[in-house]
């Protein structure tokens, strides 16, 4: 996985410790443990979790999921499946993001 700098790029001056934890611990250590769980599987889990919460970070993680090899068919199935557990409005929002990102 490529080195994450989003924390430092967006919040480094404002909240340097938070940025460090985001880039070095979450993405640098946890996401890098691919011998335990692949980046692809972590992406599926993360997208599912973010969808259930209805948070804006879902869009960014859908892009990461695509980069990590998750297919359009898998994302559509994940969103369809979770629609019944997390709520239809959240599924609509997720599906619209997915259409933008995986629609090509």
Automatic annotation (TrEMBL):
**Residue ranges of every copy of the Carboxymuconolactone decarboxylase-like domain listed in the record:** 16-100
Offer one Pfam family short name for this entry: CMD
Where along the sequence do coiled-coil regions lie? Answer: none
Q: Which PANTHER family does the record match to this protein? A: 4-CARBOXYMUCONOLACTONE DECARBOXYLASE FAMILY PROTEIN (PTHR33570), BLL4600 PROTEIN (PTHR33570:SF9)
Provide the protein name. Answer: 4-carboxymuconolactone decarboxylase
Q: Per the UniProt entry, what species is this protein from, by scientific name? A: Lactobacillus xylocopicola
At the highest ranks, the source species' classification is: Bacteria, Bacillati, Bacillota, Bacilli, Lactobacillales
